[in-house]
Design brief:
The chain has helices spanning about 5-55, 65-80, 100-105, 110-120, 160-210, 225-260, 275-285, 295, 300-310, 355-390, 395-425, 440-455, 475-490, 550-560, and strands at about 80-85, 90-95, 120-130, 135-140, 150-155, 260-265, 270-275, 320-325, 325-340, 345-350, 435, 460-465, 470-475, 500-505, 510-515, 565-570, 575-580. The chain has about 575 residues and is an alpha+beta fold. Helix 1 (about 5-55) packs antiparallel against helix 5 (about 160-210) and helix 10 (about 355-390) runs antiparallel to helix 11. Bound molecules: adenosine-5'-diphosphate.
Length: about 575
């Protein structure tokens, strides 16, 4: 059970009141008793002196009976006990005893008051009288009488006792009155105290809810204020630490989530502590997997093996692996032992090297292709050169020289295309843009190739839409693009085919289409014809083709911020669509 501050203050006030009342009652009783004693003692002394004087004139009273009767008479007058004692201590008269009883009484010569009176003339003593069974005060004086040497007076202290009783009654009454007073005092004292305690409790609740901003409340200077202030400072410091930790954590999380490498941390028991976004995607781990054993979550045996080796304290060699769920990609996984919360754990870093691998493969293929493309004309040239060496004046010599010249031109073109691609790759061909007149441009390209079209009786039509007769582009490069597409159309379509160039505008873009009525391109090759050295059918490829034309076209179009794609026309034939920003 909890006791409120108010109850405590009330109990304290009541206890203080009760205690002071008891102390006051004791003091009053003690003071009353000593005052009563002094008063009785003074009265007894006066009356004893008077009795001694009376006795001095009563020397006719000589027998014990007479003296006892006199004692009784005087006792009635003064309302106390009167005793006459002889010089040897024999009791000669006593107001409380009969003459017969007197004879059985002890000798009073050694009573303290008698001893004192013998020595100084006055003796006072207070003690419990077994004769009358009460606390008594005795006063004895010397008397000038033939037989009585001492007159002794005694009074009970009973009034003091009754005074004490009345003092305790008054105390109880005062205590009864003190309860409401104590209540009021407790209420008045505890109200501000309780209010402060409540304010402090509210601030503590706010802290518990996570808001550790400094309160404007003044705690006060007493002990309660000091305790609250000390706790407040601790909370503020804790709050600062938590804020720093939160900032650190947010920073770490930002770094981890921004990483392209997958990072996975497990603790000593092999439970997942951290998995960043990249690792979640790579290993298909859900964010709810935190806290679960990695063997349950990471299904890939190679990754699991790396982690278990690191957990056993080893630093395994980084390994290149393909994940079971994504065999098309290649990763380099490296696990290392680390210190985590709760002991030694392990961290696994996964690098996706698929793009590097692919780039490497492309480079190898390219070198192989270039070698192959160069070897073919070289072999031909060498063969014919050897033939000419054997028979320099032979009838076939002019034909051999023609072939050598054609193959040399082919090699020259191949080298030129390769150099151009290398320049484009290295961004060494800057764009020199201007507003180009598409009518003029198309006419110029067609005129360039007119002889070739005529040779195959091919008809070229140019249709330029009124809203698409200009485009901002590098005129020379756009010329190369169109020339390449038209050369292909001329090459890959049969005699008498029709070829068309159409320009249209839509959605803030200009579309340039080069269509032909040829055999078209197999659907599976449509996206691949832009690759370097890709040819749909080697046997169909034109003798002078390098397989690099469309790769250069795509490069040039993309340099303009445009796109190019190939498709087949429903009515037959291929169509190349270039889209350029207007
Ligand atoms: P090439 O120098 O061999 O013409 P390109 O890169 O210009 O190289 O073309 C790649 C391949 O695309 C060609 O080998 C050819 O098979 C195919 N191709 C290009 N244009 C056409 C077209 N108009 N019709 C059919 N096939 C085409």
């Amino acid at each position: 059970m909890t006791t409120s501050v108010r109850t405590k203050v009330f109990v304290a006030a009541l206890s203080a009141a009760a205690l002071s009342l008891v102390v006051v009652a004791i003091l009053v009783a003690w003071d009353g008793r000593s005052r009563e004693r002094t008063q009785i003692q003074g009265r007894l002394t006066t009356e004893a002196t008077l009795i001694a004087d009376l006795l001095a004139q009563a020397d006719h009273l000589t027998t014990v009976a007479q003296l006892d009767a006199e004692a009784d008479r005087l006792a009635r007058t003064i309302e106390g006990r009167v005793t006459f004692v002889a010089a040897d201590g024999t009791v000669l008269g006593d107001s409380e005893q009969t003459p017969a009883e007197l004879r059985q009484l002890d000798n009073h010569g050694t009573r303290p008051e008698i001893v004192a009176a013998r020595e100084t003339g006055l003796g006072v003593s207070q003690r419990f009288s077994t004769t009358v069974d009460t606390e008594m005060i005795y006063v004895a004086v010397r008397a000038k009488h033939p037989t009585v040497a001492f007159a002794r007076l005694a009074l009970p202290l009973s009034s003091v006792t009754s005074q004490l009783a009345s003092a305790s009654t008054a105390s109880v009454a005062a205590l009864a009155a003190a309860v409401p007073v104590a209540l009021i005092v407790a209420w008045l004292l505890s109200a501000p105290l309780a209010r402060r305690a409540e304010r402090i409790a509210r601030i503590a609740e706010r802290y518990a809810a996570g808001d550790v901003s400094k309160p404007a409340y003044d705690y006060g200077e007493d002990e309660l204020g000091t305790v609250a202030r000390v706790l407040d400072t601790s909370v503020q410091q804790l709050g600062q630490r938590i804020e720093e930790l939160t900032r650190d954590r947010a920073r770490t999380e930002a770094v981890l989530s921004g990483m392209v490498e997958g990072v996975l941390v497990v603790d000593r028991q092999g439970r997942l502590q951290l998995v960043n976004g990249a690792a979640r995607t790579m290993l298909a781990v859900e964010s709810t997997a935190i806290g679960r054993p990695y063997l349950e979550v990471v299904r890939d045996p190679d990754v699991a093996a790396q982690l278990s080796a690191a957990l056993s304290g080893a630093t395994p060699e980084s390994r290149e692996l393909s994940l079971i769920r994504d065999p098309g990609r290649t990763f380099v996984a490296r696990a290392t032992p680390v210190a985590t919360t709760g002991g030694a754990g392990a961290v696994l870093v996964l690098h996706d090297v698929s793009d590097l691998k692919r780039a490497d493969q492309v480079r190898r293929d390219f070198v192989a292709n270039v070698s192959h493309e160069l070897r073919t004309p070289l072999t031909v040239i060498r063969g014919y050169v050897e033939a000419l060496q054997d028979d320099p004046g032979g009838s076939s010599a002019p034909q051999f020289l023609d072939t050598i010249a054609r193959q040399s031109t082919r090699m020259e073109r191949l080298v030129a295309d390769l150099l151009r691609l290398a320049r484009l790759d290295a961004r060494q061909e800057p764009l020199d843009t201007s507003r180009c007149d598409l009518d003029a441009l198309c006419a110029a390209v067609v005129a360039d190739l007119q002889r070739a079209f005529d040779a195959k009786q091919q008809r070229v039509t140019v249709t330029v839409a009124p809203d698409a007769h200009t485009v901002i582009a590098d005129q020379a490069k756009l010329h190369d693009v169109l020339r390449n597409l038209l050369e292909n159309a001329n090459n890959y379509t049969p005699e008498g085919a029709s070829i068309s160039i159409t320009t249209t505008a839509a959605g803030g873009q200009v579309h340039l289409e080069v269509s032909d009525s040829g055999p078209g391109i197999p659907p599976e090759d449509l996206s691949r014809v832009f690759e370097r050295f890709y040819r749909v059918d080697k046997s169909r490829s034109r003798p002078g083709g390098t397989g690099l034309g469309l790769a250069i076209v795509r490069h040039l179009v993309e340099l303009h911020g445009g796109t190019v794609r190939a498709e087949n026309r429903p009515e037959g034939g291929a169509r190349f669509i270039i889209t350029l920003p207007a």
